[in-house]
Amino acid sequence: MGDTIWCGGYAPVDEQGLRLSEAEHRTSDPRVFCCQVAGTHHRPSSLTDARFDLGSPIALRTEASPFDGYTVGIWDGSGTLQVGYVPPTLARTVSGLLRSGTELGGQVLREFRLGSPDGERSALHVLIAPEGAGVELVVHAPAGEARGGRRRARRPAAR
User: Considering the entire predicted model, what is its pTM?
Assistant: First the structure.
């Protein structure tokens, strides 16, 4: 039997509250994307750093790569610690937007931890949005429970 993986945070849903496929990287706003952070195994100490706790701002930077002309790094909000990359299936889109002058940033949307909410963080998902996009994060309670609150967040400024 494998390890227990705990997941906490937000998931993208459509206007009817139905969860959107993570493989599509889309949200109900065509300007806003979500994705799992790729390449975190190269930076395990960054993955567990408090600068990547739920809701923390992120910065995005295009990078020169001999393997891929669309590489986009994911950094903490201050731009001092890199945790990984936008996955290749979304990198071309995000890289194109950044190179065209669109200011993008975002925040940590969801985390996965080994064993419990206090376990070692093993993966992150982030929300990517343009500067000034009003992103509304809504907490949906399971069926039969009282509905959670709403949290409105302005997407942090890109760095």
Answer: 0.81
